[in-house]
Structures are given as C-alpha cells and as structure tokens.
Specification:
homodimer, alpha+beta, Uridine Diphospho-n-acetylenolpyruvylglucosamine Reductase, domain 2, Alpha-Beta Plaits, four-stranded mixed β-sheet, 19% strand
C-alpha cells in the first residue's frame, strides 16, 4: 500500500471515496431522511493548505527518513474520526507535526526517540492513522511544552519476520497493516484473523497499543488475547517480554503494553498467536419482532458456551440501513472452525433464537471445505443467488467509513461511538443513551437518528455500538457534534458503561476516562511512564496529563 | 473451616494427614523405590516451639484482631512448599510474624495498613497460606529494614456479597476459599469453577494475586480470565475498577492487580464471572505407547478448536503412579458443558488421539443431565464399576500434597515444579530438564525420579508440571533440594520456559524471574509500587527488591 493512495483528509484510499456524482445523487435522500437542506461542498485542496513552517530540523543522520512535505504533515495531523475528517475536509491544520519520520529499522526508531528526547520534541507513534479518538493528533494544549512534534510512522516496519509452525505463531513487525500481514501469512496456511473495521488501514502495533477489538464476537475478542510477547522501544531502550503460551510470573508485561496508546514506548514487533484458516463456516440472519427479544437471544447465546464467531444484533434502524430489514431487529450470527463442522453449533444457536422469539425459518447457510458434503449447503428456504443478509451487512460495514466522508461533504453529522456494559445494566444504558441522544440531537441539530448494534457479546455483558446521523451545516458540524458526544458520553458513564470498548481513549475520551479509571491506577501508570519515558515526550495528552520534567 | 483444623506445619487439615501407621507401612516401599534407607520421624510439637518475642504491640483499637499465639505465628511463618513443610516439621521458625491480624471488615484492613505504614512494619497479605513459592514467608534478608512483621489473614472476609444473575457474576470477598465461595454460589445454581490443586486451602484473593491456574486445561486457564473488576486496598487507599465485560480503555487496571502478589495492596473483593453448572460431561483416558506421541496428540488437541476442559498428559512415570498405567503415557481428557452435549467433541478428540497413535479402544465415559439419554452412558469396553483412570488420577491429585508431607516425615525429598513453553521448544525443555534433574539428583541425592504431566495446553504451547521424588536424609533435605531446584530452574530458563506458569514468583523464584522479566518492566512495576505503597511495607522481597524510603 503506497502512502500516495491514502486520502490525506478522509477515510482509506482516495480512489475508493464515494464519487462526487454519487454524493450529489445521495443528497436528496439524505435531505429527506434527515429533514434538512444539504449541500455538497468540495474538500480543501492540498495546494490551498498553508501549514506552519516546521519548527525543528532533523539532524543530518535522520533527514533522509524525515519528511516535511505538506501532504505528509497534513495527513499525519489527525486520525480519522468525524472531527478529524471535518477538519481535514476544511483544510484546518493549525498544529501539523513538524516532520513525519518513517524509520526503516529499529535502529532508526531508537535514533528518532533519542533526538526527540534530547531536543524536547514530542513523538507521536503512528501506525496507519485510523484512530478515531484523537490518538495520533498533533498539537493541542500540550503543544507549548515542546519544541516541536514528530509523527513516527511505522509504515516500513511491515514484515512477518519469522513463522513458528509448530507453535502456530509469528513474529510480526508493528507497522504491518491487516492486509500486509495476512498476505505474508497466507503462504503458510495461517492467519491472525483479526478483523477490526479498520483492518486495511490499521496496524498490528496500533491494534496492540489500543486493545483493538476484532473479528470474534465472543471469547477472544481483543487483540491482546493473541499476543504471545511484545517488543516496545522506549526512550530508555527496548522492553521485550519472553515468548510464552501462558505465565503466572508477576503482572503480565504485555498487559501493560496493551492499551498503552503510545505513551510508554513504540511497539516495534510482537509474537502473535495464529490460527489455521477456517474451513467450516455457517451463517444465519434471524429477524426478531422486537429489539428486546433480540437482546435476550444474544444474552443466551453469549452464555451458552457455543461461542459464535459473529453475534451482531442490529436494531431495526441498523437492520433497515445495512441488512435489508423492514422494521425488525436482525441478529447476524456466524460460526467458523478450521477443523470441526459447525452445523450442530449453528443449529443449537438457532434453537436458542427460536426460543427467544426469533424467526429462524430462513435457516442457516453452511459451508464446509471443498469436496465435503456440507460445501455450499443452504437450507431450502434460502435462495443461493440472493444476497444473504449477513453478507449485505458485511459489505455495508466496510463501506461505512467512506459514506461518513460523503456525509461530511454534505455538511451533515455522521459518527459512531461504542461502549460495553454488564447485562444487568444494558437496558438502562440503552434507554438512557437513546433518550439523551434524542434530546440533544433535537436541541442541537433539530433532528437526527441514533441506531445501535452489538459488536461483541460476553457471558457477563455486551458491547453496543451506536451510529449517529444528524442534520447540520457546513462550519457548524464540530460544535454540534461535540455537544451531542458530550451528552451521550455522560449517559454511558452514568449508566455503568466504559467510554470505549475498542476504539481507545486517545485525547478525545480523556474527560470520561479520567473519571472511569481508578485514580490510583492513573498515578501508577504515570509513575510507569515517568520511568520509561523520563522526558515525557511520548504521545502527550493521551491517557494521562502530559508532564514534562 | 476453622483455623484450628489446619495443620500448622503441613498441608491442609491436620486430621487428613496420612496416619503414622500408614507412613510406617509406606516406608519399605519408599525405601525400595528410591533405593535408600528411610526412617520416619515425628514432627516438632507446638509445645516445643520457642518463638522470638513479638517485637511490636498492636494499638488498642487493633489488639482484638491481632493474635500473638504460637500456633498462629508459627502457622503463618511459611506457605506450604516442600521447603516450608520441612522447616515446619523440624520446628524451625527463626522469623515468625510478630502478629497475625484477622480483619473482620475493610475498615479494619485499612487500619492495619495505616498502623504498619506509620510504624515501619512489614505487612504480608495472607489468604489461606498454601503458597508454594515463599509468597507469604515472614522474615528473610529484608527483615532488618522493618520494626516488625504482621501477617494479615483475610479469613473473615469470606462472603459472597452480591449475585447478579443476569450478568452471571458475583461480588466475592477475597478471603473466601474455594469451598466457601462455591457453597454460597450453589444455591444460585452458579459456579466459579476454578479448581487449583489447592482449591480447599487457597482464596479468591490469593488466586488473583498469584494468577492462579485452575480447572480449565485450555482457553480460560487462569483466574484473571474470570475477573470482571477488582478492589484492592493499598496503603494510599482503595483502588477499584469498574465492572465491565470487556474494555479497551487504557491498560487494564485488573491486569496490574493480577499477579501483583501482595506488593501493591491487599485485594479485598472482586466481581467474578460465573458459569452455569455443567450438566454434560465426557471423559476418557487414552494410553500412548510413547510420551512423544502423547505430546503430538496434546498439541493437535490444543490447536483443534475443541477446547477440552481437561487435557492432562501423564508421562509413563506419572501414569503408573496415579492412573494405573503400566509403562505407557496416558492422556486424561475431559469435556464439559452446561447446555450442549459434548459427545461429538470427545469423539472428535478421540479421533485425533487415534490418529496420533493413542489406544482409544476403551472409549469415553459420557454423562448428561439426569433423565437424558446419555446419562451414565459408557462405552462397551468400559466396566461401569471399575475405577476409571480419569477418576483415579483426580483422587491421587488431591491426595498428593498430603503424601508429600509423609515423605518429609520419612526424610525424603518430594516436590513439584512447573513451567510453560511454546511447542517449538518443548522437546528441548523436557529433555534438558530431565537430563539436568537426573544429573543433579544422582550427584546430590544419589538417585531419585522425575516425572512429568501437562496441566494446561495452549494453541502455542504447553504447561508441563514435574514431580521429583528423591532419597535424602533428615537434616539434609533442604540443602539437597535447593541444589536440585536451582539446576532445574536454570534448565527451564535456558530452554525458554517461564519460572512459573501458575505457582507464582514469591521469594523462591526471584532469581530466575529477575532474568526472565524485562528489566524496564521491573522498573515500571517498582515505580507503580512506590506510588501505591510509598512506605514499602507490602510483602517485601516478593517480585522486586524491598525498598524502604
């Protein structure tokens, strides 16, 4: 993936963006559904950007890997949240990084941190830049404490270094994106099988640093469950844990690295637990008359020991928008296994769904390895040629961030937020978030919609994911969204949720995170940071307050 | 369980110890099998103990919960490793705690820490005292830094405080032993289902503090996988995490608590994820001609996605001693589920075993819920009245620590050690540990045996557990064992293992642990400790060097 293909202001690849003509065609529909006037505008052009002059100059030995080009500096100023895209779209870059460094090896990474430490330069680790929480944002209140800011982009550290077939594990460099690492694992018949929505535009290091949530709806949901060992370059040197399948030797070093969001060091590589490629799959999409009965089914499935791979409950709004629903909630269910047929599992799951009021008449789509009896098997009620709701949903899922950019160009609000909460409090959280969103959207935006789906389910709780679409106006989108976001974040906090299940904290979630995490833990984490990053140069403002000595 | 029933020097309950007559009867067999003279001696008596006078006196407000009785102080001087039992047996208590405190509530726990902090008294958190790594040991090189030592026994904090049926979770006080908490959960139809070998004599708080390994051979093997939130009383106050089914908000606070072994605070309670009681079970014991083919089967099972509950490979020595084996290795396999039949799972597992050279002719013993078709089903080749090898093994498992005490009274060496290693290095580790043990046992003890079993298997590795039986002499057991232990620990370290998979680090494993964990992580952990325990009073000598300000 060459950097040139990436959009410098929007999601993903520039040529995958929704074409202008298509956005124009969307406009009347958006206008009608949100009940507001919309007008498409063009994004700022690179040529129009007037970035602040770089405040620092890389030493000769590093100048070759440090870029001060406008596209690099603008493209590394933000992540890819709605706030980021709006600012990029408008060409607002008051605090670009002074340089974008792309180390080609660990030695250069070490030299970069040495330079930053000695010169009082903030160092922001950058994977593939798809943070949606201000995790890679350059500048802010902390900026004046530093003489400059360098974004350290790990794009060149993208290799699978070693594969251990016997232990089914691989040593992978942190800058490898999902496709890059899967491409290198495929010839070995192995897969990491971690598929966050950002799969194409996020990296192993970013996943570990943010405790990314991946493919699995149950069981091992977060990337850290697949981490065997980590190597992190801190300003004081490398911190590398031993490869172990399990250990009880003190607190896990890897669990301090996981979720550290770049404030303790730059993850350079990790040994990851891999899997055989799945040969058996089964999917089903089960309509439920009410969201509540779908919730009950999801809970029973989560507590059933069936461990479905996918268990995404879409509320009626999500189902209508993404899976061809017509007023009902839809549970998108999936099972997969490399070795064992999953027919019995999905049948047991369908029984649970039926028992909870789901309509299982469409049956399941089951496939096995080529040549097996179950290959291509579908139930009678299911036409093999019709797009399966589970597949409609998947394609909409990957397309969603591009559509968000289109909504930005129409002057609307389109954003998501997510949480997790124990089952006993889910109803209250859902009601309170829904009510709060409705209130604030009506007050601030004059309307809008909130929809909900489940991304992950646990025996003891659930991770609901919310999507907001709302009318706004060019120039007012950020202020409006900030107000709505603050209100729903408060509702999440008050009803027992976490400010993030898998998007991370970054700079955007600090307010609620600071109330959610134990104060003494923040102090302990701060002490750990002072030890590993004594000059306080790493990703200032993330997780804890920046403290320069 | 009253404290009076516990043996003050040996394992478990005093009246469950192997009776003297039985030990006498064992003597000739032990003598023959180890090739040495053995002579049974009597343990020291409580009346014979001359303990150092307490160096401190509890303030009036705490005197009611602080005991200075000989039995309490002797009984809290050590854990229950071979080293501990030998010293207790001999009546060697040079460094007893000056007092044993038993707080009845959290307020008293806070007061105790305040007292220790203000008076420079070391505070050693004590669950049920079955540490086998010097985790609760009073005294040592660090002793002179303190004015005294208090063992803080959480025996009275043993309640299940709240049960959340909907989320299938419970708030449980840290001092509850396995039976205590299961007794309170049973009326709710729920179970934690965490069964370390020490189940009866260890507590929830101890499990979390040491990252205990439990019932499950695969998947969620360690107690921290079942932790929803923790509350830990530090000298600076309580540190409590939010109840969440999953979260990506920074590094997990619970994962700093898990494995902290009492150096950061005293865990007072935790919300734990529970399960429905299993209704479906299946077990099988599969002989393998060679240990190597059993290893291959275990690895394939671990990588099969079948997730057996039990997958204990016993080498020929273990199989002969514990499961009626006659020269073959035996794989003890188990599946269980609350909701779904496990027949298909164990049949798939048996196929894998057969394919790897296992003798599956005995079939599986499968049971379902009462009234179900599969209740009590056994294969034809299996007599329902004969003790099943899987059950022989379980009963031997629970009896083992008592037998170790009997071996101590005969002047022999009987101890276990354990590790985990990735599959690619297992053969080398096993060979090197076996060779090293044979060499050092021959040199130091003039003989002895080493056997191996697997306690847990992972897709990427295995946790082997070793048992040593060796000739020795009263008075020389410790020096001999220390030399053997040092040699095998070095072999584990050199071949890529962890110094502990689930026994913890304590004081005994510090030497290798200090080389195994990243230096910078130890510094970060030390900084966290200085933050939470500024006076450095908590469990000095464990995990990191004691540092009094």
């Amino acid at each position: 993936m060459s950097a040139a293909q990436r959009s410098w202001w929007g999601w993903g690849l520039a040529d995958h963006a929704v074409p202008a003509a298509e956005v124009e065609a969307m406009a009347p529909l958006v206008s009608q559904s949100l009940g507001c006037e919309v007008q498409r505008r063009e994004p700022a052009t690179l040529a129009s950007l007037q970035l602040r002059e770089p405040r620092i100059a890389a030493p000769h030995s590093l100048s070759e890997i440090c870029s001060v080009e406008v596209e690099d500096r603008a493209g590394h100023s933000y992540g890819k949240s709605f706030r980021d895209v709006v600012r990029g779209f408008r060409g607002e870059f008051p605090n670009p990084p002074d340089a974008v460094a792309r180390p080609r090896n660990e030695a250069e990474l070490v030299s970069l941190l040495d330079w930053c430490g000695s010169e009082g330069i903030a160092a922001i680790p950058y994977g593939a830049g798809s943070s949606v929480v201000g995790g890679v944002e350059s500048g802010g209140e902390w900026d004046e404490q530093f003489n400059g800011v360098v974004s350290i982009d790990l794009v060149h550290l993208d290799r699978v270094v070693e594969v251990d077939h016997e232990s089914r594990a691989a040593l992978i460099q942190a800058g490898a994106t999902g496709p890059r690492l899967e491409d290198q694992l495929r010839p070995h018949g192995l897969t990491l099988r971690h598929y966050p929505q950002s799969f194409e535009f996020s990296t192993l290091g970013g996943w570990i640093a943010t405790r990314s949530g991946g493919h699995y709806a149950t069981g091992r949901t977060h990337i850290e469950d697949f981490v065997e060992s980590t190597r992190m370059i801190t300003p004081r040197g490398p911190m590398e844990s031993r490869r172990l399948p399990g250990s009880g030797a003190g607190p896990s070093p890897d669990r301090l690295v996981a979720g550290s969001e770049g404030i303790l060091g730059v993850i350079s590589e990790a040994w990851m637990r891999l899997q055989d490629r799945p040969a058996h799959k089964a999917t089903a999409a089960i309509p439920f008359d009410s969201f509540a009965s779908g919730v009950a089914a999801a809970r029973r499935l989560a507590q059933s020991s069936l461990w479905p791979t996918n268990c995404r409950l879409l509320d009626p709004g999500e189902a209508a928008a993404n899976a061809g629903g017509a007023g009902e909630a839809i549970l998108v269910l999936g099972f997969e296994s490399a070795h064992e047929p999953v027919d019995a599992d999905i049948r047991a799951a369908l029984e649970i769904c039926a028992d909870s009021g789901g309509d299982v008449s469409a049956g399941a789509r089951i496939s096995g390895p080529p040549g097996s009896g179950s290959a291509g098997e579908t139930s009678d009620a299911q036409s093999a040629s019709a797009p399966h709701p589970a597949e409609s949903w998947r394609s909409a899922f990957l397309r969603a961030p591009y559509l968000r950019d289109a909504m930005v160009s129409l002057g609307c609000i389109a954003e998501t937020f997510e949480t997790a909460v124990t089952w006993d409090r889910f109803d209250e959280l859902h009601q309170e978030v829904t009510r709060t969103a409705a209130d604030s959207l009506a007050r601030v935006c004059g309307g809008g919609t909130l929809t909900c789906r489940f991304t992950h389910v646990y025996p003891d709780g659930v991770a609901p994911y919310f999507t907001v679409l709302a009318p706004s106006r060019h120039g007012e989108q950020l202020a409006m969204w900030d107000e709505v976001k603050a209100a729903v974040s408060e509702a999440i906090f008050e009803t027992g949720g976490t400010i993030t299940h898998h998007h991370a904290v970054g700079r955007d979630h600090r307010g609620v995170y600071d109330r959610q995490r134990p104060d003494l833990f923040a102090e302990a984490l701060g002490a750990a940071k002072s030890t590993l990053d004594p000059d306080g140069i790493l990703n200032p403002g993330v997780l804890i307050d920046p403290r320069r000595p």
